[in-house]
Amino acid sequence: MNAPLKQHLIDPEICIRCNTCEETCPEDAITHDNNNYVVDATKCNFCMDCIQPCPTGSIDNWRIVAQAYSIDDQYSWNELPKQAELASGAEGEAVDAEVLALIDAAHTGAGGKSVAPASAAKPAINLYNRDAAAVATVTGNYRLTHDESDVDVHHVILDFADQPFPVLEGQSIGIVPPGLDADGKPHRIRLYSIASPRHGERPNTNNLALTVKREPNGVCSNYICDLKKGDKVQVTGPFGATFLMPNDPAANIIMICTGTGSAPFRGFTEWRRRAMPGASGRMMLFFGARRPQDLPYFGPLQKVPESLLRKHFAYSRVPGEKKVYVQDLLRREEAAVSGLLASAATHIYVCGLKGMEQGVDAALDDICRGSELRWHELRSQMRAEGRYHVETY
Ligand code: A2P
């Protein structure tokens, strides 16, 4: 009997087929066909070089197997096989612990592995890839930040006409920037969160919206922000199976974001407003920006009634005023937040700057300390129940 092996695998449901892992692997262990990116178990030496550059985390999957899955097995998958039960034995346990250590090392954020909310709709994933991309037409491109702002954020609407492109709030799509990079290779696909609800930017249209910030020298962000009405865009996806909205109208949703991290929360709010106007669950938004002029959707957000969405804005660079971050507002709203944290119907979503993660975590810890709750235990429980989600970059 062979000792169990640890095998590195790529999750086909999350992979955006951007080729980054294949380019990065020093062992040439990663390859692909039209369906999937796969890892050759005879070549992979667990150097982990591919883990960090992967934009989706799909690369970070491991199984303990009695016999390695072949490349052909992996090409045929639509989803990863579950971890099979192995005969217990010292080797198996030792390998398992080693894999867990590797996985832990690759996960630095407070988010960790995520689980979809129990009541979320089942998402469609990976319908289009680079070799067979959907072609969307730009039907709108509007600047979202004030004319005086140096922060250039755009609301871009993409229409899919008769191509099926089903999405859920919280999912992302890939945009294929045209042209080649300095090495003559096609540009990497970039991922953007969908900012509209599942049934379209306008109800019952086959379109969606993105919230995109122009980055200095950003290949894809400049491409998107400069798009004109009528332009055609190559789109992959949809992606994302966990950062999804609960369908349960009794679910309370606490949303914490900076800048363009607000995109999925626009989708969440619009879906609640349109599909569940009488929902009993509460929605709270904590939104950080430099100044009101730099806050995407500032105007439209003012019109969203407080009965639907409790809004708390944190501004960090208003002249003459103290710097305020989202975590400061969480502390300020301690009573309301701890009341919601005590409920098993409450979900937390964090989206935006990576730097915010630690501050938000510390604020929630402080808030819990002021009540009977233990944040670290509660966080693990919420994560396991699909009620705690972090997406930072
Ligand atoms: P700051 O003014 O200190 O950079 P950006 O406009 O760069 O996308 O940032 C959005 C908002 O997030 C800004 O108000 C920014 O503040 C704030 N921010 C930056 N770092 C953190 C952090 N560690 N925690 C919370 N908010 C942060």
Automatic annotation (TrEMBL):
NCBIfam families xrefs: benzo_boxA
Naturally occurring in which organism (per UniProt): Bradyrhizobium denitrificans
CDD domains for this protein: CYPOR_like_FNR
Cofactors, names only: FAD
Gene3D superfamilies tied to this protein: 3.30.70.20, Nucleotide-binding domain of ferredoxin-NADP reductase (FNR) module, Translation factors
UniProt-listed Enzyme Commission number(s): 1.14.13.208
UniProt GO molecular function: oxidoreductase activity
Domain of life of the source: Bacteria
UniProt entry keywords in alphabetical sequence: FAD, Flavoprotein, Iron, Iron-sulfur, Metal-binding, NADP, Oxidoreductase
InterPro entries: 4Fe4S_Fe-S-bd, 4Fe4S_Fe_S_CS, Benzoyl_CoA_Oase_BoxA, Cbr1-like_FAD-bd_dom, FAD-bd_FR_type, Flavoprot_Pyr_Nucl_cyt_Rdtase, FNR, FNR_nucleotide-bd
Keyword Metal-binding: yes
All residue ranges annotated as the 4Fe-4S ferredoxin-type domain in the record: 6-35, 37-64
UniProt name for this protein: Benzoyl-CoA 2,3-epoxidase subunit BoxA
Xref: SUPFAM superfamilies: 4Fe-4S ferredoxins, Ferredoxin reductase-like, C-terminal NADP-linked domain, Riboflavin synthase domain-like
Top EC class, one word: oxidoreductase
Ranges of residues in domain FAD-binding FR-type: 131-245
